[in-house]
Amino acid sequence: MPHNPPAASFLDITGDVCPMTYVKTKIALEDLAPGEVLAVLLRGTEPLRNVTQSCTLDGHTVLRQDSGEDGCTRILIRRGTDD
Amino acid sequence: MTDKQGNLPANWLERYSRNILLPGVGGRGQRRLLAARVAVVGLGGLGSPAALYLAASGVGTLDLIDSDAVELSNLQRQILHGTPDLGRPKTASAGEALARLNPGVHLNLHAERLDSGNAAELLGKADVILDGSDNFATRYLVNETAVRLGRPLVTASLFRFEGQAAVFLNAGGPEEPCYRCLFPVPPPAGALPSCQEAGILGSVAGLLGTIQATEALKLLLGIGEPLTGRVLGVDALSMEFTTLRVRRNPACPLHGAESSMLPPFHPSDST
Predict the structure, then answer these.
(1) Could you give the strand order of the β-sheet that contains B61-65, starting from the edge strand earlier in sequence?
(2) Yes or no: domain A9-68 corresponds to CATH 3.80.10
(3) ipTM score here?
(4) What is the pTM of this model?
(5) A22 at the B interface (CB within 8 A)?
(6) Per residue in A10-35, pLDDT tens?
């Protein structure tokens, strides 16, 4: 298993829908320094697709996705240098 | 728009979510808008859409300046005002419309005519000055004040199916033009109809006022390329957009050694 740095911050967006899922993720990433990692817990396939795609488009890196049997996914995002 | 403790307004993430999602804006850009201040001169065809979009976008403070009352012929394009507002000060109807749209915006209402005695005070606290006035006397005064205060000016004008817009940063650069470099002298009295006399397609006013709001937001956010060093011309009948380069006019009285001894300007047009 590849080594991932510990998350500097954690965000639960399981109760949110698009686009607030990414709005909250984007704000949480802004509060981190470049290279720091944000852990995000979300629910369902649509937030998973939108949040991961938006993170990539904004210059962040999705390091890892762990889906559970409850429909939730925990993703690790490394903050890029651009907002 | 923050309170005395620096707290952001409730539900701001959701209200401004479409701003925050934009590249180059984000939470930081939105906080800049919430802390920003724009002066809007004239609450007519240009100032109406401009002020509406600035308030909707969350610009924290708007200084609204207009001495006129709402007339029936205004309502075809001046969308801040409605039929029940006929005869009321434009600042009053504008204030109500903008507060209804976004009660978090702080509004300073100035139902007075901009003149050389009050211009620096009314415009001096703004980060950006947006000129939506309808006469050369006010335009020259706004420009002169913006140059002397070193504040960016977003200007536009309308004529029938056409409009023009330009941004002057007034940052003190040696080659920077100002509005008066573009229009060195006012047209002689009677040569041009005033805005009140000329026909104007209302939606064209909306188009140009919205361009002004867009340029003001870009300046406040520090994104994109401002409409500087050029003037945008819009012909709605052909729907063609053209840009012409604008250079500093060496004879412009607002620049150079003579600028501190600016000759008094006697407005011939006071519509």
Answers:
(1) B106-110, B61-65, B37-41, B128-131, B153-159, B162-168, B230-235, B240-245
(2) no
(3) 0.85
(4) 0.90
(5) yes
(6) 999 999 999 999 999 999 999 999 99
